[in-house]
Amino acid sequence: MAEFPWPMRWDPFREFQRDVHRILETLSPGRAFGMRPYPPLNLFDLGSEFRVVVQAPGLSAADLDLSITHETLTIRGERKRPQDVADESYRRHERFFGAWTRSLTLPDRVDADQVTAECLNGLLTIRLPKAEPQAPRQIPVLTGDRC
């Protein structure tokens, strides 16, 4: 009698993990379709500066908070629910509402004092001029009793 060669052994834990993953996707609306609670962005290297463009429809400058530390740009925002629409009125709810934070590590150092941001037509544009390259600095070694 010939044996049927199974490509893989049945693993109940793998089946359980797959089922849990499916359940968690259904609990988080939009996640199954690739939606994220923060807006998408593009980062460009334009030679003398980096430019970040964030999709921010419906957000005003007051809804956004930007900060930069070393090579990390942090963007915080909040998309508020319309006050005149009750939760039970929604028949379809695809846009994310609520607070979000996004941190982006930049490919190189920037001049933090020269960073500018503008919110226009649903796009947040952040211009980050690159910092001047620093020349290597020699460090003198002091002599002592032992080295």
Automatic annotation (TrEMBL):
Q: Which domain of life is it from?
A: Bacteria
Q: Name one Pfam family in it.
A: HSP20
SHSP domain mapped to chain residues = 32-145
**Would I find rRNA-binding among this entry's keywords?**
no
User: What keywords were assigned to this record?
Assistant: Stress response
**UniProt keyword annotation of Hydrolase present:** no
Instruction: Kindly give the Gene3D superfamilies that the UniProt entry links to this protein.
Output: 2.60.40.790
What InterPro entries does the record point to? A-crystallin/Hsp20_dom (IPR002068), HSP20-like_chaperone (IPR008978), Small_HSP (IPR031107)
Family according to the record: Belongs to the small heat shock protein (HSP20) family.
Instruction: Please identify the protein, giving its name as recorded.
Output: Heat shock protein Hsp20
| Native source organism of the sequence | Isosphaera pallida (strain ATCC 43644 / DSM 9630 / IS1B)
Biological classification of the source:
Bacteria, Pseudomonadati, Planctomycetota, Planctomycetia, Isosphaerales
